[in-house]
Amino acid sequence: MVRMNKNFSGIMELNSLPSAVFVLDAHHEAIAVAEAKRLNIPCVGLVDTNSDPTQLAYPIPGNDDAVKSIRIIVDTVVEAIQNGLAQRESRRNTRGQADLRAASASMAAAAGAVNEEGEVDLSKVELPSNIELSEGEIALAAAKKKTAVTPRKKVAAPKE
Question: What's the pTM?
């Protein structure tokens, strides 16, 4: 039972099927490759001369017996995955901030809190009960309100 828990504990925690499967030795992991193929899960793997590269969706030719070769390939794949996840998180944050700005602008316009310069007067905006501002955000809004920037007039330099 201990051996089964050690080998299958990660599978028990899965909520859905994985988006992809990565194997180091396609010949040794033939059952995993066949299962991934049966479930239409793309399989990425290191293939040697003793493996069939047509069984994998994305074969990586290389020596699957040498530790150094495996380390180089795995480090490269891990770095690519981490970069992709970071880009996805960055896009989500950017999209979330844009959605928040659009929602707050529409709420401010509906509440009549937009002045003639197109700026939102936060004192006139009524936030929903589930949104709370921190004290720093409230202080920042008050400071912006106090220090209103007046536009500078352009003055031409005197000609000599």
Answer: 0.54
